[in-house]
Amino acid sequence: MTTTPSVPVVMALAGHDPTGGAGIQADIESILSMGCHPVSVITTITVQDTADVIGIAPLDAELIVQQARAVLEDMPVAAIKIGMIGSVEGVQAIHTLLTDYPDLPVVLDPVLASGAGTALATEEMVDAINSLLLPFTTLLTPNSPEARVLAQGCDTLDACAMFLLEQGCEYVLITGTHENTPRVHNVLYGNHRRLETYPVDRLPGEYHGSGCTLSSAIAALLAQGIEPASAVHEGLTYTWHSLDRAHRLGMGQCIPNRLFWAGDESEDEDPADDDTAHF
Ligand code: PLP
Q1: Residues in domain Pyridoxamine kinase/Phosphomethylpyrimidine kinase (predicted)?
Q2: pLDDT tens for residues 6-53?
């Protein structure tokens, strides 16, 4: 048997999207692309196409935790990404799990609605995410509508970010695609203030799984020991390229091409390297 040098292991806890655009498949592809080994814990089965989510069936909370614990006790997981959870019981169970691994970097992508606006979380879940998961979160990656829902009542995105930091997460990255601006402004907050803005060119399409792609790429970069601000920059760059080369495979949103770097036309591209043109 030949052995190769060890590779960082990144755990994704997320829903399954059968289109392959969002959810656990997006996480697996992104984590692999960033040079890590993905381990995947399914939280929810969804029924959906590229246009919208038709149904969700959250898994039993105990089963979610059993899947995670079996792997955590076996492999040296270096970072955790959490996406769609599906139930309050699931949030509570993941909270208990995180209390046993307080030093692991956690990237939390608060999945509250589908791209078409279908609710994927209840108000009770939002409260549970704020009180039980944010204190264990290294980086929270809401888009701007999600940030407004989580920080109920805050009027500006800056105020939303301050509220979310006060709940106990270390960094908040608010992505700006839903804002009515010519370029997309992604803003990183931490240490009670706005740390950095990453403006990118606005792409013309609608994409399924952009938030999943971004959050799991960043989790993989944190697993490699990269500093959060650099991991955010590299993760945004990788996501932008994945979206720029997305495929329109169904009748709804485009599917990110997370393995764009393996394609014929770009053989020698490193997915995290190219930060030209759009930044
Ligand atoms: N996870 C699952 C299972 C989903 O179905 C969705 C959206 O429908 C998402 C995550 C969020 O997708 P996005 O990254 O586009 O916000």
Answers
A1: 17-253
A2: 899 999 999 999 999 999 999 999 999 999 999 999 999 999 999 999
Q: Which of ligand 1's atoms lies nearest the C-alpha of 48?
A: 5
Domain contains 4: no
**pLDDT score of 276 more than 50:** no
Is there a domain that residue 278 lies in?
no
pLDDT in tens, 94-130: 999 999 999 999 999 999 988 888 889 999 999 999 9
| Residue 64's CATH number | 3.40.1190.20
Question: Is 263 among the domain residues?
Answer: no
- Count other C-beta atoms under 10 Å from residue 199's C-beta: 16
Radius of gyration of the CA atoms of the chain, in A: 17
* Ligand 1 proximal residues by C-beta, below 6 Å: 14-15, 17, 22-23, 46, 48, 53, 83-84, 111, 114-115, 208-212
| Ligand 1 midpoint to CA 211 (Å) | 7
Domain hosting residue 177, numbered range: 9-258+269-273
Q: How many angstroms does the Cα of residue 210 sit away from the middle of ligand 1?
A: 8
Residue 264 domain-assigned (yes or no):
no
